[in-house]
Every structure is written in structure tokens, then in C-alpha cells.
Please model this.
Amino acid sequence: MFIVAAVLVAAVQQGRAGNLRIAFIDPTSPPSFWSLVVETMRAAASELNATVEVRETGHSYDKAIALTKSVLAETPPLPIT
Model:
């Protein structure tokens, strides 16, 4: 369950200039796998005029929950669909 919760893209919101902003909660373990995932996300984001914010959990379930809550609490509120 930890991996599923931590791997999810926590937020996608429309930026002021029409750019997408994506927050990714990175479980960081195993680092060799997740660093490739982050590289791929950033490459795709650059093609889509989007930015990716990576927030690392250090393999901590509690930190993953706290990071997710902080992303969801950001202003302006995220559109949930």
C-alpha cells in the first residue's frame, strides 16, 4: 500500500501561463528504479510544456502522507476529477 500511495502523482494543476504543474511523491527506494522514473517524467514534461516537482519520502510512509497532504493543501486548490 505504501508504494501505491507514494508513487501516485499527487497533483496536477493548471499554471498561470497555461503550463501544467505535476507533483510526484517519490518513495526513493530502490533509487536506481525511481531515478529512471523521474528522468522519464521530466523528459515527457518538457515535451508537454509542463514542470515536475519531485518530493522525496526517504522511504518513510509518514513523510509520504505528510507530503501528499501538503501538495493537496496548496493554494490555489487543485482541481480534483
